[in-house]
Amino acid sequence: MAQALWDEASSLISVTENHPFLVAMVDGTLPVENFRYYVIQDALYLKDFADCLRRLGDNANVDPKESKRLHDLAKGAEEDEMALHRGFFDKWGIDATNAEAMPNTVLYTSYMVRIVATKCHAEGLAVLLPCFWVYMHVGKCMLKLREDLGDSVKRPPAYDAWIDMYAGDEFERDVKDYIAMCDNAAKNADESTLKSMREHFMMSCKLEHMFWDQANDLMKWPDIVAESCKGDKDE
Length: 235
Hints:
By secondary structure, the chain is mainly alpha-helical. It is 80% helix and 0% strand. α4 (32-57) runs antiparallel to α10. The protein is globular and about 55 Å long. Residues 17-215 form the Thiaminase-2/PQQC domain. InterPro entries: Haem_Oase-like_multi-hlx, Thiaminase-2/PQQC, Thiamine_Salvage_TenA. One of its GO terms (cellular component) is cytosol.
């Protein structure tokens, strides 16, 4: 089932693996300001992501081994991935505790939390799958590009650390375990649930791409009041 989800989204994933933000990370042309923006937003995202994994682990009738693995994955998101982020924050000398979630962060997290909280276990697994699988995939694509470029370019060490984490063997093991859970859940799912799983997977793939769009563009919330006042003066 999981492979079928991937295949259906393959054209979108192919575009995402060549996202300007990701390519610029590898060739060293991405401004640190954009990466800093991304890391802050990702830290906010990971809090909800970990909570969703924990919620799935607490669902009724979940196999005890799967429940433990989901809780372990939640802990990994909070500790391992966030440790990477905290290392960046310490180096930059910033405190992201009270950072504001930007539009596409809110869009993505609110969607996945809603699905996990209100839909069945299989659908909840599907909506989180792209965060695992797409990240591993782009990480490996970026690793290959980095190897191809060799010493011809220079990039900040933080970019290499990010690539190393998501292209690494430990993260790949986590992804494969999660894919197996999705496949197992799909075995007992009816056609309606399978259809919803496909829809959630595709939507999260879109939201993954939009998350990097947001960082590439340094998206901000519109200043509605200021824009309204400006409009009044123009009239």
